[in-house]
Amino acid sequence: MSVRVVVAGDHQLVLEAFAETLNGTNGLDVVGLATTYEAVLPAVERHRPTVLLLGEPTMGGKALRAATDVRAQHPKCGVALMVGAATPAVVDRAVAAGALGIVPKNARLPQLITTLMGVAGGCLTVDPALMRPPTAGESALSVREMDVLRLTAGGATVKEIAGELYLAAGTVRNLTSAAIKKLGGRNRFDAARIASEHGWL
């Protein structure tokens, strides 16, 4: 079964060329394009993609908002983000917005395809170059990830955490997945335990 992709960015010609490259590659099927922030959600509603691929520096600076909108209204659609500046802060913001995949714009095509396939499978797929180990005494977690783990440690469900933090349940799951990956936990409760032992909660 093919992975249905909607690609969003600022330039129609670039998107069309991009779609042509991706179409039919490793079972990818580009089913729609969106060139404005306002067009993203309607495109997702119309085409029901498996993955939305967003250009982070584009769309008038509203790409992260578009990711949050899509994850809130269409939680079955995974979001992958192409980023220009490869920094841990960008990764934190992207994951908090609901992105499961983050890939730098200078990545090669196989890396992008791997990211899209990972997101389609519901996996957090981040280029290791975008992750940096924390320095001594520094938390490896974003503020939001610590908030989620703190509530997890108290026994809260994903739905309860979403309500407490005013986030979509899908965003909570993304933050939890990111924290588990960073800490090497077996599950969300194990990640909360590890973070607590490091004094981060």
TrEMBL record:
Residues 134-199 form the HTH luxR-type domain. Pfam families: GerE, Response_reg. Keywords: DNA-binding. PROSITE patterns: HTH_LUXR_1, HTH_LUXR_2, RESPONSE_REGULATORY. Residues 4-120 form the Response regulatory domain. SUPFAM superfamilies: C-terminal effector domain of the bipartite response regulators (SSF46894), CheY-like (SSF52172). It comes from the Bacteria. One of its GO terms (biological process) is regulation of DNA-templated transcription. One of its GO terms (molecular function) is DNA binding. Gene3D superfamilies: 3.40.50.2300, Winged helix-like DNA-binding domain superfamily/Winged helix DNA-binding domain. PANTHER family: TRANSCRIPTIONAL REGULATORY PROTEIN DESR, TWO-COMPONENT RESPONSE REGULATOR. This is Response regulator transcription factor.
